[in-house]
Structures are given as structure tokens and as C-alpha cells.
Amino acid sequence: MNDKPEHLSWEEAVVWLRNQPERQQLVIDGYYDDPVMAAAERYRQSSEWQEIAQLLQGRAGMALDIGAGRGIASFALAKEGFEVTALEPDPSAIVGAGAVLHHMSDLDIACSEMFRVLRPGGLLIAIREHVISRERDLNAFLAAHPLHHLYGGEYAYRLDCYVRALKAAGFDRLQVLPPLKSPINLFPYTINSLREAVLDKVAQKIPGRPLWRMMLGSDRVFRSLLSVAERFDHRPGRLYSFVAHKAAS
């Protein structure tokens, strides 16, 4: 069961992942577990979705979920009162993969098309996009991805490439959500689970877990520390999200 097959489809890669007992937490974190409605409801209750819901506050009407996958986000959008169209090029009932920004072979065309179909005054939210600092980091980032070695469908761009493509498409009021400053980008962690992971690491090196817990217990303090830590984040790839507006007229 632990042999790693090569050259699978995206669906086959996720099925392989689901059959690895030691990787079940990753399956759950990625909302690939069944029943799908339970996974969708868990996502709707997550801190990630709560942050997205804040960005959507005061908005209503139609929503286009590009790269809808299993419909997890579509379900959450519908529960918020949106009329949702789910767009997913992968016909699998288990997964979908091919339509988020970092999967696009031509980022400029993808952003231009999304701008074109968005109504005036509309909002584009691109979540958990793969960002590399330098082109030479790409191979190291892809090697660390849990499924890329199976189906080869992942990619990543530099941050300036995303920003340039979105602005060139016509979007304005572009907001960039960095890796450690938004719950959306902490996947597979939440603020609380990341805090526990940091506590474990610190306590292993410097005894005094109750003291460290007291010091890191405040969300404000912990988020401030994450902002500082971001300056020293030298991973080959990170997750960013983008919020872009289309002018009303």
C-alpha cells in the first residue's frame, strides 16, 4: 500500500492517497474524505471559510466557483445565499483539479477571462495559490507536494507574476494575503493547531510549556509573531491568496 505509483490521473492520485493509512490526516485536511456532505459542512465551519465569508460580507447574487472540485466551496457559497455555478473541467465524482490559477498554463489569459466574465463591481477571490520566490525554487517546491510526483499537475509562479497578470487583466484594488497573516493560507493548519505545533517545537528545545502557552495564548501576540516569522520564511514555496475588484463602471 505504500508503493508510490507513477503517472496517475488526479483522481487516481487522490484515491491512492485515501488508501494510505498514515496519510489520513492529509485526506481530512484536504476535504477528500467521505461522505462529501460532511466534508463540505466541516469546510463551511472552518476558520478558512469564515475568513472568506468576511470578504464576501454585504454581497449577494451570482457566484462562479472556478475549479470547484468536489463542490466544497460551492456548498459554502450556496449556504451564504449565492446562486452558484460550479465550473470543474475534471469529470471525476471524487476530485477536480484543473482550474485554479496555479494550474493555468497561461496566467495572463486566465486572469483576462475571469475579468471578462465578472460583472462590474464584482469580486475575484483566488485562494491558496502556490507562490515561489525564485524560479530555481520551483523543482524543490514541486518535490515537496504530496501528490505532484504521482500525476504531475501542480505548478507555481512568483508573486510578481500573479500581481502583474491580475493588474494587466484590469482588476483594481488588489489585496494580497500573505502566507502567515491569513487563516486562508495556513492550510493544513488553523491558528489554534499552528499554535500547538509551535508550542511543541519550542517546548522540545526550551522547557516550560505552561509559560510558553501563557505567552502565546493571545491571538494578537501570536499573529504578531507570525508576521515577524514571515520575514524569515525561506520555504521554496508558500500559499498566498488574492482579492481583486472589478470597477463598478
Account of the 3D structure:
This protein is α/β, with parallel strands linked by helices. The protein folds into 2 domains: about 190 residues, Rossmann fold (3-Layer(aba) Sandwich); about 45 residues, no CATH class. It contains 12 helices and 6 strands. The strands form 2 sheets. Strands 4-3-6-5 form a 4-stranded mixed sheet. The protein has a two-stranded parallel sheet with strand order 1-2. Strand 1, helix 5 and strand 2 form a beta-alpha-beta unit. Helix 6 crosses helix 9. The N and C termini lie far apart (about 55 Å). The model has no long low-confidence stretch (mean pLDDT about 90).
Global shape: globular
What is the CATH C-level name of the largest domain? Answer: Alpha Beta
Which regions contain 5 or more consecutive residues with pLDDT less than 50? Answer: none
| SS summary, helix count | 12
Straight-line distance between termini: 56 Å
The overall pLDDT, averaged over residues, is 88
Which class of secondary structure composition applies to the elements?
A: alpha/beta
Q: Record the strand order, biggest sheet.
A: 4-3-6-5
CATH superfamily of the largest domain: Vaccinia Virus protein VP39
How much of the sequence is in beta strands? 5-15%
Could you say what the CATH topology of the largest domain is called? Answer: Rossmann fold
Rg over CA atoms, rounded to whole Å, is 19 Å
Q: What's the structural domain tally?
A: 2
How does the major sheet shape up?
4 strands, mixed
Report the helical percentage.
40-55%
SSE ordering: HHHHEHEHEHHEHEHHHE
